[in-house]
Design brief:
mainly beta, seven-stranded mixed β-sheet, four-stranded antiparallel β-sheet
Length: about 130
């Protein structure tokens, strides 16, 4: 079992920044690949980014490349999503997810992740 709790969402103007955090508990965090996804109203869930257990491999979705940065602090059981240059189209509920089944690799599809947080709302005003 893994519990994931996101925080750091809020309302920000276009061009601004936010940093989301996802705190994990219940299992050895340092062995887990972690992902960030988002869902905007009326749209399907979208891959934002993912990071391997070591932090050595990171993937980003095309829409956020160059603006968002994923990092992790295994000593704090936390993964972060630094979001810069926010746009109104970034408005969504952001979810972190953990892959507890593989112990290797990092994946961009939601089906690869078996634990999810409750989500945090990010709203970007124009």
């Amino acid at each position: 079992q893994v519990q994931l709790v996101e925080s750091g969402g809020g309302l920000v103007q276009a061009g601004g920044s936010l940093r989301l955090s996802c705190a994990a508990s219940g299992r050895t965090f340092s062995s887990l690949a972690m992902g960030w996804f988002r869902r905007a109203p009326g749209k399907e869930r979208e891959f934002v980014g993912a990071i391997s257990w070591s932090g050595g491999t990171i993937f980003y979705g095309d829409s956020v490349k160059g603006r968002f940065t994923i990092s992790r602090e295994n000593a704090k059981n936390t993964v972060y999503l630094q979001m810069n240059g926010l746009k109104p189209e970034d408005t969504a509920v952001y979810y972190c997810a953990a892959d507890t089944t593989r112990g290797y690799g990092v994946f961009t599809t939601a089906e690869a992740y078996d634990y999810w947080g409750q989500g945090t709302q990010v709203t970007v005003s124009s």
